[in-house]
Amino acid sequence: MIHSRNRRLRVNESIRSLVRENILTTDDFVMPIFVMEGENQQEAIPSMPGIFRRSIDLTVKECKELFSLGVKSVNLYMKVSEHLKDNTGKEAWNKDGLMQQTIKAIKDAVPGMIVMPDVALDPYSIYGHDGIIENGKIMNDATNDALARMSVSHAEAGADLVAPSDMMDGRVLAIREALEETGFTDVGIVSYAAKYASSFYGPFRSALDSAPKENVEIPKDKKTYQMDFHNSREALNEVFKDIDEGADIIMIKPGLPYLDIVSKVREAIDLPIAVYNVSGEYAMVKAAAQNGWLDNDKTIIESLTCFKRAGADLIFTYFAKEAAMILGKY
Ligand code: PBG
User: Fold this and answer.
1) Less crowded by CB within 10 Å, the N or C end of the chain?
2) Domain boundaries, the chain
3) Where are the active-site residues found (predicted)?
4) What is the three-class DSSP state of 177?
5) Which atom of ligand 1 is nearest to the CA of 121?
């Protein structure tokens, strides 16, 4: 006769909720946002149904809505005009640049919103790379100097945290030192510590027109700086280095196919862990839901909850607004 019956604790929703181990709330969400030049402009991103590029005024309006739904953090990406791109990325630290104006506008209108600008050169690079290129090579240390300048200019505009997504070696230290020297001791760093070279970034690159250009003199992918998806121990090596250099929050990216990495890093560190539910993951769920092959709402809530189960504290997700609305329904 069996005595141990696991189904006892699954009899109804009340008992299931009593023994539930992980709960998803809007407190966990960071919404990535795409910004473009202009006024009262909004453009749909075809491979990301429901996601738009917006001018600053409409971005501010969106931030107000997000905040009222309980989403208290945004991660910012700029669509940079072609004529402002070069190989140095200098537009990235223009104090009147699109990013700097956007940070100011959001902080003015919604002071409680945590604003995390992306720190990487790819949207500003004529080559679509996260680093400065010389003789066909990504120049690590020269890129770090640029990223440090960019981070300080984000802090001057009012950023709460900066989020370097470039994967150069030593950039967390370079950014931390630059922020300390300029007095921005309270501006934190969300470090993309374990970021893999992934095909799941496709829709994002088309949203910003930032894919590496097809040019024989430059690397056509990001494999010399982003991690190899065959590896997992290497992620811990990256994470420990970034912590030593002064990271405040550790990011793992992509998300759903990389939950083993989230779980492994969770066992190893006590710093907050962020996970990025990237554009390709968003596109897959949306495409299936639009075809009636998956239940949209249930799939979103299940996937986001799985990030928490794996050990993440923060979830960067294009579903943030929609998930906040779904959670509000129950
Ligand atoms: C680039 C950057 C990328 C993403 C965030 N920052 C793309 C890349 O590394 O090529 C991807 C985000 C997504 O796919 O949602 N610094």
Assistant:
1) N
2) 23-329
3) 195 (schiff-base intermediate with substrate), 253 (schiff-base intermediate with substrate)
4) helix
5) 16
26 lines ligand 1 (CB under 6 A): no
DSSP letter string over 61-79? Answer: HHHHHHHHTT--EEEEEE-
Task: Give the tokens for residue 83.
Answer: 């004529």
Tell which residue, 190, 187, 112, has the closest CA to residue 157.
187
Mutate to test the pocket of ligand 1, among 45, 76, 122, 168 (most ligand atoms within 8 A of CB): 122
pLDDT digits (tens, 9 = 90+) for 148-194: 999 999 999 999 999 999 999 999 999 999 999 999 999 999 999 99
Q: Give the type of residue at 307.
A: F
DSSP strand pairing (161-164 vs 114-119): parallel
Q: What ipTM is given for this predicted complex?
A: 0.97
CATH no. for 23-329: 3.20.20.70
Quote the ligand 1 centre to 93 CA distance (angstroms): 19
pTM for this entry: 0.96
> Does residue 306 sit in helix, strand or coil?
helix
- Judge if the upstream peptide bond of residue 254 is cis by omega within 30 degrees of 0: yes
> 43 CA to middle of ligand 1, Å?
19
**What are the tokens at 206?**
């088309």
- DSSP, res 210: -
**Is any ligand 1 atom within 6 A of the Cβ of residue 205?**
yes
Round the average pLDDT of the chain to a whole number and report it: 96
